[in-house]
Amino acid sequence: MRNQNSTLFIFMAAAVMAVTFFSCSEHKGFKKDKESGLYYKFYEQNDTAPKVEDGGLVVVDFIIRNTDSVFNKGRTVLHIEEPLFKGDMIAAFKMMHQNDSATFIFQADTFFKYYMPDLAYTQKDKNIYFDVKMLQVLPKDQFELMQQNRQKQIDAMKEQYRMQEDSLIQLCLKATKITTKPAESGLYKKTLEAGKGDAPKAGQTVAVHYTGKFADGEVFDSSIGRGDPYTFTLGQGMVIPGWDEAIATMKTGEKAVLVIPSKLAYGEGNQGIPPYTPLIFEVELIDIR
Q1: In terms of DSSP bridges, do strands 57-65 and 127-138 run parallel, antiparallel, or are they unpaired?
Q2: Is the Cβ–Cβ distance between 191 and 254 less than 8 Å?
Q3: 171 to 51, 188, 218, 255: CA distances (angstroms)
Q4: d(CA 63, CA 58)
Q5: What is the pLDDT of residues 156-177, one digit of tens each?
Q6: Is the alpha carbon torsion for 26, 29, 33, 34 positive or negative?
Q7: What is residue 147's predicted lDDT score, i.e. its pLDDT?
Q8: Which of 94, 145, 209, 216 lies at 20 to 30 Å from 19 by C-alpha?
Q9: What are the C-alpha distances in Å from 143 to residues 19, 21, 56, 74, 153?
Q10: Which of 85-94, 144-153, 186-195, 275-284 has the lowest mean pLDDT?
């Protein structure tokens, strides 16, 4: 006859096995990660390969789907940062090594809330399947070194542009036939056609037609083709400083050409304009309101 302790042990063991069976059978063929709560299934595992870690970089092929539809797929590069929620994509990636492939299961409502908030999920399937092939893992120290080298390249490029700005300004002056000295700020302005009335004051709304060019004459932007002048409030920092300064000296109907050094334009670069790049603007003050 079994003793009481032996019977109790068998009962507890059976209970544990039952709990394990039912918790895992919620998604047949998948296991549940205790830390993240994610259900997962690995197809390839390479435990000796580099493992995904905080601060590192990964390159993955992925498919986001349910049993009926594919919502997104492709290849992407991701920086492993703080998770959005417990059991998110980051948690999934951190379970993987380079060359691993796996599928993870997310609850659809949570997944769409954090990753696709602009899309309404109305399908009956409450699960999202995230298929991943971990193509490359770059550890944190290697990623930081890559970032440092990239920054050195950017700094070197900026310095090259900075060194050539003076010569580019001279090309701009030659192209616009401006021979007068600049304003104290460094702004060059040449009136092509006089206007009438008073110049606008800070706080007033002005409408300006313009064409922007680089030193070689390439047009990078123009309101002419769009047919509508650009409207802004003068002196409020809504435009580059060279514009605020130049337009404040103009009268309605006046046309002028400007050469604006980078310190009064886009400085170290912005909106597709390279760093330390002087610009030519042909401007016409259409209206003051």
Answers
A1: antiparallel
A2: yes
A3: 54, 13, 13, 21
A4: 16
A5: 999 999 999 999 999 999 999 9
A6: positive
A7: 82
A8: 94
A9: 42, 41, 6, 22, 15
A10: 144-153
The whole-angstrom separation of Cα 157 and Cα 41 is 46
Token pair recorded at residue 36:
């993240």
Model pTM score: 0.59
Helix (H, G, I), strand (E, B) or coil at 103: strand
Task: Give CA–CA dist 136/99, Å, rounded.
Answer: 7
pLDDT score of 223 more than 80: yes
Give the model's confidence band at 59: pLDDT under 50 very low, under 70 low, under 90 confident, else very high.
very high
How many CA atoms, within 13 angstroms, populate the side-chain half-sphere of residue 73? Answer: 9
Helices (H) and strands (E) in the chain, counts: 5, 12
Which alpha helices (DSSP H) does 177-273 contain, by range? 241-247
Q: Which of 52, 53, 55, 80 is nearest to 144 (CA)?
A: 55
CB atoms < 10 A from the CB of 200, how many?
22
At 45, list the tokens: 């595992």
Domains located in the chain, CATH noted? 21-138 (3.10.50.40), 164-288 (3.10.50.40)
CA 178 vs CA 170, 203, 250: distances in Å: 10, 30, 17
Instruction: Extract the tokens encoding 149.
Output: 């080298």
Beta carbons within 10 angstroms of residue 78's beta carbon: 15
The pair of structure tokens assigned to 29 is 């063929």
- Contact yes or no for 220/273 (Cβ under 8 A): yes
Calculate the average pLDDT of the chain.
89
Secondary structure letter of residue 263 according to DSSP: G
